[in-house]
Amino acid sequence: MGDALRDVVPIIIGYVTLGLAAGMLLVAEGLSWWWAPVWSIVIYSGTMQMLLAPLAGVGEPLAAIAASAVFISGRHVFYGLGFPLDRVRGSLLTRLYAVHAITDEVYALLASKDRGAMSGRYIVTVEAVSQASWTLGTTVGALAGTGLTALVGDDIKLLGFVLTSLFVVLTIENWKSHPDLAVLIVGVLAGVVGMTIGGSAALLSALGLLAVGLIALYGWRSRRAARAAQARGPRSDAGAVTSSEASGSTSGSRASGKDESC
């Protein structure tokens, strides 16, 4: 357990810090503070919780919220493919919690360790401490936001910039690691269309257009790569045949020369 507590310190620092902002944003959107610990236990997705606060605050349709959850947190489903669940012993409840508590940071930490050397206790301890730190951060942030509301009133809504800042930072970091102009253009166009439509259909329209655009882009790139591979294939074969013929001609010439000398 000592190793788990030592390894999880960076996650604790990050989760408490970001959790404070998430909790204050929740209150700024007009929700009660106690939603912070409830969401942190049940949902446990930082980005989704920060997005859910304004969506729930304005009464966004459930379909739009569900679509947002799929787009933002759907990747967690695939974490289970590489997650060392076989190392987790104990009851079914323990194993289910181990799956529920996988986050980006926890997965990155576990992936950096030797799979065979990890125990189930180590894995569950890392996950439980990480979630506890996130829950603590959001709860304290929500309580602080409640206190600020009593002091500044409706001006607390100015904290809504936290969500915008978060997604701006995520976009910049993603661009640094995977600079893809076409994907950026698709995202910007989807956002512009959503803002133009406005109302309760804005988010769902933007997400739908984003999905269609990314699928179309992927299909176009796949077909282009396939055509390029096919175009290179015949040339390679022709080159191989030419080389073979040239080699055969050279061998034949040498043989003829030997016969003549004899």
From TrEMBL:
Residues 230-262 are annotated as: Disordered. Residues 230-255 have a biased composition (Low complexity). Signal peptide: none annotated. The chain crosses the membrane at residues 12-36, 48-72, 156-172, 179-197. GO terms for cellular component: plasma membrane. The keyword Nucleotide-binding does not apply. It is found in: Cell membrane. One of its GO terms (biological process) is L-valine transmembrane transport. It is a multi-pass membrane protein. Keywords: Cell membrane, Membrane, Transmembrane, Transmembrane helix, Transport. Its main location: membrane. Belongs to the AzlC family. This is Putative azaleucine resistance protein AzlC. It comes from Actinomyces massiliensis F0489. The lineage of its organism: Bacteria, Bacillati, Actinomycetota, Actinomycetes, Actinomycetales.
